[in-house]
Request: fold
Amino acid sequence: MDDSQRRPVATPAYSVVQSAPHQILVCKACKHKGEACKPGFALLKKLRAAIETAGLGDDFEVSGTACLAGCVPAHGEPCVVAWRATAKATWMFGDIDPDQPIDDLIEFSRLYAALDDGWCSGKDCPPRLCDNTLARIPAAIIVTREGAIQ
Reply:
């Protein structure tokens, strides 16, 4: 297989140990250029600092991740950001410019932390995020012979 056609591989594997109840993931792999995503790293650094400044550091871990496959290269170099937590819906937003103010990302973080199940309407999101919603993924419910496990 041609190296330019290979998918990004996380090192270590995709398993994640969280240090906080909620996690914000920032894509840091540019599959279109085959290299690290400089805008993603810039946004990661900016978002980590803003989460701490907002007093949300105990509630959120901000991590870089392998390709989230939500970018639109025709829009320049946008970033993809996702929020997730155990037993909560996952939200993914795209076309986030690290050079723009990130107040809306902090506002969504506050909203997400306050939701019991992570479920809200897109219209409840800050306006810029509402327009850039890529996905709202329901929390996984695993069913075994013994019953449902969250």
Observations:
- Residues 38-53 form the longest helix (16 residues).
- The chain has three helices and nine strands.
- Residues 41 and 56 are 20 Å apart (CA to CA).
- The longest strand covers residues 79-85.
